[in-house]
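Supplementary Text 2. Reproducibility record for the structural model of the 175-residue chain.

All settings were left at their defaults, and a single model was retained for analysis rather than an ensemble. We include the record here because the model underlies the residue-level annotations in Supplementary Table 4.
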Amino acid sequence: MTRRLLLLRHAEAASPPGGDFSEEADLARALTAEGRLAAGRCGAWLRARALAPDLVLCSPARRTRETLAALAPFQPPPALPIRFCPEIYEAPPAALLACIRQAPTDARTVLLVGHNPGISALARWLDPQAEALEQGFATASLAVFRMWGSESAEDAPDWAGCDATSLTLDTFARP
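Retained model, structure tokens:
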């Protein structure tokens, strides 16, 4: 089975209350009503394509956690492994890639729920030839990457070695 990396930018979030742009206020921003609907559409889109993650890497920000909650359900119990990773919040592409590289070998599909500009920059770095990414990574956008060579051999590439030479964009959507 092919390894897939799903990069999802959180859905639309409310502005910080009272113009408070502190990190604490930013982390507490909730999804808007439209954001909850968009995240639900992303979940339906993933289920329609049988893209259920084996592992979720998620920023601890409220808007990413609410986006993730609106995607469910993916699979029956036992519960989907979810790692809330503080290093994903406002992370540059290299930090996001470092999180992905720590995914266990048995995870075939990894979903990373994060923020721009890091998630958009990582997607473009992973496949700079992908014209679909030129339209921008709006809220609730989803990029599905496929890992080369992961569908054949037992010694196929794993997450520890993923980089721009091992992943290519399969689909980019704004459900």
